[in-house]
Each structure stands twice: as structure tokens, then as C-alpha cells.
Write a structure and sequence with these properties.
The protein is built from four helices and eight strands; from the N terminus they run E-H-E-H-E-H-E-H-E-E-E-E. By secondary structure, the chain is an alpha/beta fold. It has one domain: Rossmann fold, CATH 3.40.50.
């Protein structure tokens, strides 16, 4: 079910959404084996860090920056905040929980999966996103999502993390 954002300029309760997502992930991964978490920089990395602590998987936590794997790299160029990918565990045979903050076109997810396969062949990849805003350009769906939000294409959902680690989610005009 798509829930329209009644006030696009109002911040959404990202902490409450995180709790929903965390519960879904805990339940969904309860029987999974060889689990590792990979967060997509930057918002997905923040979420992955917190999930890894809650699931006691900090030793199996990685981060991925898909900048060089995006299909629009030649058009957009390199962002100034590119972070190194860090996968400190064996990807082969692992159940990877890939975490992103906002699922939109599916292109970031596709790029992340391509990069993960450069590190090995996981047994399974599950996708978790704090918010799904629709607008898919590729056949990608999240296994775990806290909320589906409908916003116009000229706006974006932006996850921010305060110094104390608390999340906020706002709708910005592009």
C-alpha cells in the first residue's frame, strides 16, 4: 500500500521507521545462516551499522559505495564524498542483507549487487530499505521496507544522522 506524504515539507519520523524496519529484519533473518550486512553509502551504511549492533553482527558488517558501478557514472561523474568499499568477510555462500535508505529507481541496488559479485558469490541477497518511494526503472523490490511513500519525481527523500546517531528523514526539492 502506498501512503502519500501529507505534508512534503514535514520531516518523517525516521526513528519510528527504523524500529519497524529493524523488527522486520530480525524476524526475517531469524532462521538465516551465515548472515552478513552490507550498507550502501551513506544512508544505508548508517542504517546497517545500527542493525549490525542490534543483531550482534558487527564482525560481519561491510560498506559499499556504488559510484563506479552506476550506469549513469559517465553522465553524473564522481561525487566528492566517495567512500572506499569495505567487505571484511567472505561473501561466498553468505546471506547478505543489503541495506539502503531509500529505494527509488532500483539502479543503486543493481549497482550494489554487481559490486558484491566482484567479491564473491553470495548464497542469497536480501534488500532492506527504510523507505520505498516507487518509481522503479528496474525490476527490484525490497524484502524489508518500513514504509512506502509517494512523492513527486522532482523531490527526494533524504536521510540524515545527527551527532547522537538519531535519524531524520526529510523531503527535499531537487
Amino acid at each position: 500500500m502506498t501512503i502519500p506524504n501529507p505534508n512534503p515539507d514535514h520531516a518523517l519520523d525516521a526513528e519510528a521507521l527504523y524500529q519497524v524496519l529493524a523488527q522486520q529484519v530480525k524476524t526475517g533473518l531469524a532462521q538465516a545462516e551465515n548472515v552478513a550486512i552490507v550498507g550502501i553509502h551513506s544512508g544505508g551504511a548508517w542504517l546497517a551499522e545500527r542493525l549490525a549492533k542490534e543483531l550482534q553482527l558487527t564482525e560481519r558488517l561491510g560498506f559499499i559505495d556504488v559510484s563506479f558501478y552506476r550506469d549513469d557514472f559517465s553522465e553524473k561523474g564522481l561525487r566528492p564524498d566517495v567512500k572506499p568499499t569495505q567487505i571484511p568477510f567472505d561473501v561466498d555462500g553468505a546471506t547478505i542483507l543489503l541495506v539502503d535508505d531509500v529505494l527509488y529507481t532500483g539502479r543503486t541496488t543493481r549497482a550494489a549487487i554487481n559490486e558484491l559479485f566482484d567479491y564473491g558469490r553470495p548464497a542469497r541477497i536480501l534488500l532492506a530499505a527504510l523507505a520505498d518511494r516507487g518509481g522503479r526503472e528496474l525490476p527490484v523490490a525490497a524484502d524489508f521496507v518500513a514504509k512506502t511513500i509517494s512523492i513527486p519525481g522532482q523531490q527526494s527523500l533524504v536521510l540524515q544522522r545527527a551527532d547522537d546517531g538519531r535519524f531524520s528523514l526529510t523531503v527535499d526539492h531537487v
